Amino acid sequence: MCRQFPAKEKNLKHPVPSISSRFKKCVRKANLPEDIHFHILPHTTASWLIQQGVPVTYVQKILEHTNVATTLIYTHQAEEHLKRAVQKIDAFIYN
Length: 95
What we know:
The chain is an all-alpha fold and 95 residues long.
C-alpha cells in the first residue's frame, strides 16, 4: 500500500510538527506565500487525483482514511470537472 509517511513502516519517528516546521522553512527559503502549509500536500494530491478520474475510494486508501467522508473533505472539485460530471449524468439520462 502506498503510504503518506513511509517512515512509519520502518518504525522511524518523524513527528508531524517536525516535518511541518521543516516544510515551512523550505517555503520561506523559496519566498513562497506564508499560507502554504505542510497539510496542503495531501489535500492537493487528493484534489489532483480526483480531477484525473481516480476513484475516491482509491484516494481514501492512499491517504489512509478509514471513512470516505474524510477523504471527500480534502477534495476540491474544479468547477470544470463538476460541469463535466453533470454533463455525463445528463447524457446518461437523456440518451
